[in-house]
Amino acid sequence: MVKYFAKRFLIMLAALFLIALITFVIMHAVPGSPFTGEKKISPEIQAALEAKYNLDDPLPVQFLDYIRGLLHGDFGPSYKYTGKTVNDFIYNGFPVSAKLGLITIVFVLLTAIPMGIVAAVKTGRWQDMTIMAIATIGVTIPSFVIASLLIYVFAYRLNWLPTFGLDSWKGYVLPVVALGGYSMSYLARLMRSSLLEVMGQDYIRTARAKGLSETKVILRHAMRNALIPIVTVLGPTVAGLLTGSFVIEKIFAIPGLGVHFVNSVSQRDYTTIMGVTIFYAAFLLAMVFLVDIFYCLIDPRIKFE
Amino acid sequence: MDDFTKQTGGGELPCENPWGMLDADSRDMEKLSGRNRSFFSDVWFRFRRKPTAVAGLVMILVLVLFALLGPFFTKYSYSDQNLDLVNIPPLLPVFEAEDGSCYFYITQSLKVVTVNRDGTLDRQLTRLREDDKQKMIYFDYNGEEIVIFYGMQPYVIANPETRMIMERAKVWNRSYILGTDTLGRDILTRLMYGTRVSMLVAFIAVLVNLVIGIIYGGISGYAGGTADNIMMRIVDIISTIPLTLYVILIMVLLGSGLHSIIIAIGTVYWVDMARVVRGQVLTLKQQEFVIASRTIGSSTKTILTQHLIPNAMGSILVTVTMLIPSAIFMEAFLGYLGIGLQPPLASLGTMCNDATENLKSCPHQLFIPALVICMIMFAFNFVGDGLRDALDPKLKK
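^ Those are the sequences you sent over. The predicted structure of the assembly is below.
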């Protein structure tokens, strides 16, 4: 198992290096220098700027410098906001995004698992139908549509919740629901099918034959195995929430990292795009890796080669 | 033997030797009755028994027709602006003229447009003067004066002599069936072009994925060994990268525009397809018919294209129909973030994005394209589910 994870770790590092390389190449393949803007600048200033940011070095040297910086946790300066570094953006934006993401994950798990259980226990009844209808809608409707709908109904029509700002718990309600809607629906469907599959197994019949109550059979016996597929998809779910937050942060005017990323894309702030991409990728890979370790720990039947 | 002669229909025996060959028509008699169903008619048979799948298919056909033929039936283009008629809703709140011949509609810029009784917008009335104290703006209507009174919300139209507010009414807008957007462009026309963009993105993405995915997965699965190992490690690494980030990066490199969206989606979405094809090829290549084909000396290319890929078509089709909604979603997502198509081009995502600013006053501008996105997503998901069930041999009855 240790060998398996060592191999996975190596693949992860290779992926990260590749991501850094690809982003670097893409960002340097973009036509025009990062300083070409509305204002024309003289060639001398341009040369001075390029020298300041070491842009006059050959590309491989620049890449090695960049990688060296990354290894020291330095993502470089922002080209568009003088005096600001990419680290500043990450430092300011990421905690906001992470808090929203964490609350969303908790919300998703707390809603999806009970929904899946109820749907599985009441298969074919109205409870199942309702939950599955909600879940189907949730996986097909894009998050920005859900977000706009929520804003229109709860903020403009009913005036219950604010449209932006995270000052009180009220501000979190709409972004969390909009961001988590897809994952909630997906996990509820998964929970239902996996619980149904487990409920058909022999050891459940044994548990019932022993005379255990249905609650105990489900919560103590069936759930243990039925939760495993949920753990497996937690990694991709985190990824989905992270990229989904680009649009949610934009709609709800949340000053997170996602909205910084989108802004830097439209402003063509190349170092910020690069830095944030690599940061996101590293974070995601680490999450998926952790989930895999966790997955292996909770299910002793899994033996990795 | 007598029975047999009866069956063949003739009085004579088919031939002298009772153990000899039978005529063709007498052999047909022994055929099992029932029409022989090909693979695809079998799939179609099971597919059409699922109402949601058929509904999805019909919905897709309707949307394709809407996107392709729709623009021929509208008199506007997607970029025609009419700044006098911005943010007009589908259901017009109007005031009925006293003679009852037409209605008056107050535009956002405080002008009066006459609306015919059938709901078409007619002409703009000439503005005569404004009375600040009375909070009235005077307009000329066929020589008579009418006023907009803006002392109360919402504004009303009145007769300045009798000071009576004209009768309110609601009429469906026939000139702009779904209303206009913030620049006075016809939403229905833009919707047609937007759907067209979504469909185009989806189909080109699918095409690219099919080609790259099938070739890559087919080679990897069929070659096996080191080649397979290296090719799959590459796929592993690519699939650890969040696709959204990569699509955005490629958009930065290529600039905004339809071609960049298609290239971006095409270059990163083939990974799943490659995995599916490889898995199928790996299991199929062990089967007897492949070994038989190899024994008679078929080339690798023939085995791949004639035997392996057609047999893997089922899973490939399912993967494709599941991929279409995610490609469409990605285009809408990019459009919504403002890094997709550039104005005045319309896509469903950019239409939603343009409409967010005045969500409060004109929610229809956002909900109409959003509804179309949802319809597309529903349709393809339903068709995908239906196809998966229809192609699953375990469910065959």
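The first helix of chain B runs from residue 2 to 8. Residues 1-11 of chain B have pLDDT under 50 and may be disordered.

Shout if you want it in another format.
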